[in-house]
Amino acid sequence: MLDRDELRKKIIVALDLDSSEKAVEMVQILKGEVGLFKVGLELFTACGPDVVRRIRTEGAAVFLDLKLYDIPHTVARAVRQIARLGVEMLTLHAYGGPEMIQAAVEAASQEAGRLGIPRPKLMGVTILTSQAASGGAQGPASIPGISVEKMVVFMAKIAEREGLDGVIASPHEVNALRQNVGPKFLIVTPGIRPQGSDEHDQKRTATPQSAVEAGADYLVIGRPITQSADPLMTVRNIIDSICS
Ligand code: C5P
Questions:
Q1: What is the mean pLDDT of each run of 10 residues along the chain (244 residues)?
Q2: I want to staple 129 with a disulfide (CB 3.0 to 4.6 A). Which of 61, 170, 177, 199 is the partner?
Q3: What CATH number is associated with residue 23?
Q4: pTM of the entire structure?
Q5: How many domains does the chain have?
């Protein structure tokens, strides 16, 4: 059984907000209660790398979720820049293939080594949690005869083999992943919805408690926290719900 402090470190708050001020305010409220803050496409394109520096100045750790996907050279150069920001974690699409993944890992290691800082953890995006498990013309999830679970496990094995630290996957695939990857390979799950909260556009969701029980190392939670009237109380209730 994990204690409150260990559970707290598993929570990643998705700062899907449109200004540095709103993001820093949320960080100031929550930094003692969660492990990491995720800066994604909206906040990064609105505010640029400076918002990452501002969050770091608050003493908080950053997960930079830019979901890189390009030719190996371009991804490697972007990863070097990201490593300089001192983030704890970053994302790239596992779908980018072995060469892209290897180039990213090598760039992160070299740049962190050169700066004498810890290498950011590189996490592979598998299949977006907004894609349903079946039906519809919804991208890779709808390839006939191949389940989302099989595709996620397939991509995770490539990611692990090529040196990524873990993957992003929906809570529904955590069990299958745990059986197919090593115990140290990290699993980060978005699509987390506390009991009774709005699903928004997420399709393959689970409660915080069931995701942790299935073996998730980190839970990404955005709107249920950032859009709540009292984000601090919401986070505390989430941690209580996992403990109970
Ligand atoms: O608000 P919500 O809790 O749905 O936020 C989930 C966050 O996780 C969003 O920032 C989204 O971009 C991200 N994410 C996701 N599914 C993935 C990878 C990232 O929902 N597969």
A1: 90 97 98 98 97 98 98 98 98 96 98 98 88 52 74 94 96 94 96 89 88 96 97 97 88
A2: 170
A3: 3.20.20.70
A4: 0.93
A5: 1
